[in-house]
Write a structure and sequence with these properties.
With 143 residues, the protein is mostly beta strands. It has a single domain, classed as SET domain (Beta-clip-like, Beta Complex). The chain is 0% helix and 39% strand. The strands form 6 sheets. It has a 3-stranded mixed sheet, with no helix packed on it. A 3-stranded antiparallel sheet has the order 4-11-10, with no helix packed on it. Strands 2-3 form a two-stranded antiparallel ribbon. Strand 10 and strand 11 form a beta hairpin. The radius of gyration is 14 Å and the shape is globular. It starts with a strand and ends with a strand. The model has no long low-confidence stretch (mean pLDDT 81). It binds zinc ion. Zinc ion (ZN) binds next to loops.
């Protein structure tokens, strides 16, 4: 079991509700939500994330990401964000191990933060069926 401590990783305007990242107040379009430093970890079937005193077992949910046989990369809190085919955020690579999480549209309070997993295709090794309920849902996300 690998434990990753992400305490104090959440921006002031975001909270964790079950396994979803929710806004606590509105976020303007094209706003920098936070900067995320990526982490490289040895492969392990079970990863727990500890965030604000809560432990989240990533092996039991769909946010789990596998890079290749030897390395698994968790991009900070983005590993807790759901995929959407009509996402409200995007991750922009800033530096070798740094990403900016930015809003694509205006996001109201109490909305879930999502991004399009296909934009981080290097993290994934297989496709998955999508049920994001977006009118633009691609049904199968291929990498
Ligand atoms: Zn979808």
């Amino acid at each position: 079991m690998t434990r990753v401590n992400l305490n104090k990783a959440l921006p002031y305007n975001v909270t964790l509700d079950e396994n979803r990242l929710m806004t606590t107040e509105p976020i303007k379009k094209n706003e920098l939500i936070c900067t995320i430093k990526s982490r490289l970890l040895p492969i392990d079937k079970d990863i727990s994330i500890i965030l604000d005193g809560k432990t989240i077992d990533l092996s039991s949910n769909k946010h789990f990401v596998v890079l290749n046989d030897n390395i698994k990369e968790l991009i900070g809190i983005s590993c807790l964000m759901s995929h959407s085919c009509s996402p409200n955020t995007r991750l922009i690579k800033k530096d070798k191990n740094e990403y900016n999480l930015e809003s694509l549209i205006y996001i109201g309070a109490n909305e879930e933060l999502t991004y399009d997993y296909a934009t981080l295709r290097f993290l994934f090794t297989s496709s998955f069926k999508c049920e994001c309920f977006s009118p633009h849902c691609r049904k199968t996300i291929k990498f």
